[in-house]
């Protein structure tokens, strides 16, 4: 099976612009959607390129590139909300009624929101860090503060500091990774999305809105998630510390929690084999 970038790359034209994605696996296999996280230079391919071949052995996989991250065309609106809308538009266009989803960080939040609001579309859910509130750890976390510093004033040194905060093993932050992320992070859409999500002014506005609003935070509605859910976490995650898992673990009725040692925020990369094994078993049940 050829799971290279060029062999799996696809495009879908919607009324809001082009959605790009990667596709691999037997056409007769059940679908699996992989939803990426946020941060400088992130996209779906970079999050899941190392896992695509594994999951494509059992599923027809789709790595969805969210609007506004420099790959798919940008949509107007807050990135987390447009990401959720893009997933539904994508599923409708391809005739996917329901599917299991794997969501890394922000992608996990997108999956959680879909499981709350459109439960018939989410068959099973796997999250990788990122969901729930900080219980014992400071908020914003160390990793989010590093991300905020980059969003406010992007430069290479701030990017490197943030990348090193994402992992347990600093050897994973190679010069090749730094160059790849730096080039992608400078895309105008990616810069705008980063400012909207993590810039100091935007963050303060979001906090004020949450304090003044009657709308409950998404995590307080997680008791409405009816699908089986696997929460995966790096024990040494400095972006979304593992105490955050306590709330979704308690509120989601069919939640399981798997914590990987010696692992930071990128569980699917840093604990690749163990993560794939745990998720495969969960999906096969």
Describe this structure in words.
With 285 residues, this protein is an alpha/beta fold. The protein has a domain at 5-137 and 219-284: Rossmann fold (3-Layer(aba) Sandwich), CATH 3.40.50. The protein is built from 13 helices and 8 strands. The chain has helices spanning 5-8, 44-48, 52-55, 79-94, 106-117, 142-152, 156-165, 175-185, 188-198, 200-212, 246-251, 267-270, 272-284, and strands spanning 9-14, 17-24, 31-35, 60-64, 99-104, 122-128, 229-234, 255-260. Strands 1-2-4-3-5-6-7-8 form an 8-stranded mixed beta sheet, with helices on both faces. Helix 11 (246-251) links the parallel strand 7 (229-234) and strand 8. The two termini are 25 Å apart. The mean pLDDT is 95.
> What's the average pLDDT?
95
Which topology of the domain at 5-137 and 219-284 does CATH recognise? Rossmann fold
Distance between the termini: 25 Å
Q: CATH homologous superfamily of the domain at 5-137 and 219-284 - what is it?
A: Alpha/Beta hydrolase fold, catalytic domain
Most strands sheet:
8 strands, mixed
Low-pLDDT segments: none
What's the structural blueprint in terms of helices and strands?
Layout: H1 5-8, E1 9-14, E2 17-24, E3 31-35, H2 44-48, H3 52-55, E4 60-64, H4 79-94, E5 99-104, H5 106-117, E6 122-128, H6 142-152, H7 156-165, H8 175-185, H9 188-198, H10 200-212, E7 229-234, H11 246-251, E8 255-260, H12 267-270, H13 272-284
Parallel strand pairs: 3-4, 3-5, 5-6, 6-7, 7-8
Antiparallel strand pairs: 1-2, 2-4
Helix pairs in contact: 4-5, 6-7, 6-9, 9-10
């Amino acid at each position: 099976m050829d799971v290279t970038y060029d062999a799996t790359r696809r495009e879908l034209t919607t009324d809001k612009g082009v959605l790009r994605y990667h596709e691999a696996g037997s056409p007769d296999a059940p679908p699996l959607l992989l939803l990426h996280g946020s941060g400088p230079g992130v996209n779906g391919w970079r999050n899941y390129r190392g896992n695509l071949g594994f999951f494509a052995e059992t599923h027809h996989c789709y790595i969805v590139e969210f609007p506004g991250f420099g790959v798919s065309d940008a949509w107007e609106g807050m990135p987390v909300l447009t990401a959720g809308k893009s997933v539904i538009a994508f599923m409708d266009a391809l005739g996917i009624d329901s599917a299991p989803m794997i969501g890394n960080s922000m992608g996990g939040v997108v999956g959680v929101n879909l499981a709350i609001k459109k439960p018939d579309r989410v068959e099973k859910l796997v999250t990788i860090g990122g969901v729930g509130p900080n219980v014992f750890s400071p908020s914003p976390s160390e990793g989010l503060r590093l991300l905020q510093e980059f969003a406010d004033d992007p430069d290479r040194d701030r990017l490197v500091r943030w990348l090193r905060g994402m992992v347990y093993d600093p050897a994973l932050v190679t010069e090749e990774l730094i160059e790849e992320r730096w080039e992608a992070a400078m895309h105008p859409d990616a810069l705008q999305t980063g400012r909207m999500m993590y810039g100091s002014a935007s963050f303060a506005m979001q906090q004020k809105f949450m304090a003044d609003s009657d709308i409950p935070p998404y995590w307080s509605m997680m008791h409405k998630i009816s699908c089986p859910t696997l929460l995966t976490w790096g024990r040494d995650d400095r972006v979304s510390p593992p105490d955050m898992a306590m709330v979704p673990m308690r509120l989601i009725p069919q939640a399981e929690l798997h914590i990987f040692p010696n692992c930071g925020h990128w569980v699917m990369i840093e604990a690749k084999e163990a993560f794939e094994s745990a998720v495969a078993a969960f999906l096969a049940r």
